[in-house]
Amino acid sequence: MRLLAFDTAADGCSAGVFSDGRPIAVRSGTGGPGHAERLPRLVEAVLAAAATGLDDLDALAVTVGPGSFSGIRTGLAAARGLALVTGLRCFPVSTLEALAAPLLDRAPAPPVAALLDARRGELFLQRFSDEGTPREEPRTLPPEAAAGELAGAWRLVGNGAAAVLPHLDGRRVSVVEGRLDATAAALAAERAHRRGRAPVRGFDLHPCYARDADARPGAGRPLLRVEA
To answer: What is the tens place of the pLDDT at every residue in 92-137?
Structure first.
């Protein structure tokens, strides 16, 4: 499967072309303009470097969150636009699934819990079984509550892992440094494909915020008062 994958759900912005999970061309952008300005240039660059046109692709993959609200929207908008223009289907990948993907084929081994710093004293958590399937959708929990979900032996991955360690009461866990980028998204999509999960249409792509936005205008109410 030849795949165009990209990730803008956190602080980084990256895109790549992959064949059966192996990278052909990958680019990342830091600094300068925001994700919305960088991503189209990265996509154009990796397609050119891989000598691949959109017609040569089998599918897309995009991280859908949780993470940065603006970053998630940028990635989803790009994926929807490409899917609708080309007719390609897309694998939506949670950021936690992408973090866990490099560990999930290493068996026999303890199950994996992916944790991301959600700020405001909270973590995003998603657990995966011994077989590598998600146990639940991503959730937002304080560190002590996340630790309470980790009875037994676990492999922890992600920048939120350190926050749960003081709450584990001596339980044995291993901590693996994970990386969230287009390569991780592509690996997660390739795993999903092998396990029989089908990609979706552009209109069926939805964000996974795992909590409410910080700023939410009142539904149906204008932001400015208009006098009659």
So the answer is: 999 999 999 999 977 678 899 999 999 999 999 999 987 788 999 9
Are 63 and 121 contacting, i.e. CB atoms less than 8 angstroms apart? no
Per the rule left: phi > 0, alpha: psi between -120 and 50, beta: everything else, 137 is: beta
Residue 219 is predicted with a pLDDT of: 47
Taking the C-alpha atoms of residue 38 and residue 25, their distance in angstroms, rounded to an integer, is 16
Helix (H), strand (E) at residue 189: helix 182-194
**Cα distance between residue 25 and residue 35, in whole Å:** 19
Q: Domains, the chain, ranges and CATH?
A: 2-94+180-204 (3.30.420.40), 97-176 (3.30.420.40)
Residue pair 138/124 in contact by the 8 Å Cβ criterion:
yes
> pTM of the predicted model, to two decimals?
0.88
Question: Scanning the structure block, which residue is given the tokens 């908008």?
Answer: 77
The residues, any chain, with a CB within 8 Å of residue 124's CB and separated by 6 or more, are 66, 67, 95, 96, 115, 116, 117, 118, 138, 139, 140, 160, 210
The residue assigned the tokens 């409410």 is 212
CA angle 8, 11, 16 (to 5 degrees): 40
Q: Which residue reads 């072309």 in tokens?
A: 17
